[in-house]
Amino acid sequence: MSDIAIEMRNVNKWFGDFQVLKEINLTVSRGERVVICGPSGSGKSTVVRCISELEAHQEGTIELDGIDIGQGAGTPGDVGMVFQQFNLFPHLTVMQNLTLGPMKARGLSRTEAEDRARTYLDRVRIPEQAEKRPGQLSGGQQQRVAIARSLCMEPKVMLFDEPTSALDPEMISEVLDVMVELAEDGMTMVVVTHEMGFARKVADKMVFMDAGEIVEAGPPGPFFEAPKSRRCQKFLSQILQH
């Protein structure tokens, strides 16, 4: 089996007449943590939404474990996705939110699904919230439930689309701490975020996007210390001042 988890080759995507992705080439190895950053509207979220098949691309190929996802490859849950908004079912308890996917898509019994859910609620440090509904939780707790829900499908890859941008500042660290632990455990991750402290800590590869293109990519050390492109220099100077 190849060491490549995700490979995007010459991927182009349009929304009507507007080209939102331009010749995207990106390789993510197993266990690699890739952080994508860039200004608003640069195409970052569209990249992860194409990998997760929430958006269709018009040109190029995207492979997951060497299989073209455009051919309907993979099983539901091979790619876990965590969004800005938590997307939890408000009428279900935390436990029900976590067991629904494994029972429906993976065929687990209720007992197996609940055992797995408890394991991942422990992992995200909120085992005591299992019987509450999402509306009874803080934003940070809801996002950790959303991460646990993805982990319950035991995905090969985890994608995060600005997972802390809807949170109050004091809740951001509790979510990032969980993500750091996942990274340290070897989870293959692609993270769209403006949290550069997190990026410096966990990223194996930084990717800077602007206007639908990958402008610069490389290890975090050179990326932060000596960005090559003017656009990346300007972006980092603005974001690192905050």
Short summary:
The protein is 36% helix and 26% strand. It is built from 8 helices and 10 strands. Helix 2 (94-105) packs across helix 3 (110-123) and helix 4 (139-152) runs parallel beside helix 5 (169-184).
Task: Write up this protein.
The structure is a single chain. The chain has 242 residues and is α/β, with parallel strands linked by helices. It has helices at residues 44-51, 94-105, 110-123, 139-152, 169-184, 196-202, 220-225, 230-239; strands spanning 4-15, 18-29, 33-37, 59-64, 67-68, 79-82, 157-161, 188-192, 205-210, 213-218. The strands form two sheets. It has a six-stranded mixed beta sheet, with helices on both faces. A four-stranded antiparallel beta sheet has the order 2-1-4-5, with helices on one face. Helix 2 (94-105) crosses helix 3. The longest helix is centred in the last third of the chain and has 16 residues, at 169-184.
